[in-house]
Amino acid sequence: MDPPDRAGLERLLAVRRAALEVVRACRVDEAELYQALLDFLRAYCQEQGKGRRVWLRLSPRQREIARLAAVGANDARIAAQLNLSTTAVRYHLNRMQRLFGVRSRDELVSCLHELHVL
């Protein structure tokens, strides 16, 4: 399992600080809170690792299509730049969306940015 990136850890620490404030205000059991945060951290690490493994399974062509989509190129522009048909570009984008478990091009790009692979 890959560890989360630095930004991810900083976000988790900010969540922990906010949660501790809630604990103090609501008198929630700290042990339960720590367990919940630990569960969240494990799930986060697992998702990050899974996403990176999927990225590594993509072909160089799919990675290039993802990079071009991330900078805002539309299907026609990506197709022209990589000498592909727009149908092939759409196929690769749809396949990547399924692999990463997202429903749109924007979600795919966002997911890849979160994984720090773009």
Structure description:
Helix content is 79%, strand content 0%. The chain is built from six helices and no strands. α4 packs across α5 and α5 (86-100) packs across α6 (105-114). The relative contact order is 0.11. The mean pLDDT is 83.
Please outline what is shown here.
Helices cover 79% and strands 0% of the residues.
Write the topology of this structure:
Blueprint lengths: L5 H21 L3 H28 L2 H11 L4 H8 L3 H15 L4 H10 L4
Helix pairs in contact: 1-2, 3-6, 4-5, 5-6
* Measured distance between first and last alpha carbons: 20 Å
Order of helices and strands: HHHHHH
Uncertain runs are none
Strand proportion, as a percent range, falls in under 5%
Largest sheet: none
Nearest-integer average pLDDT: 83
Features:
single chain; 118 residues; mainly alpha; Arc Repressor Mutant, subunit A; 2 domains
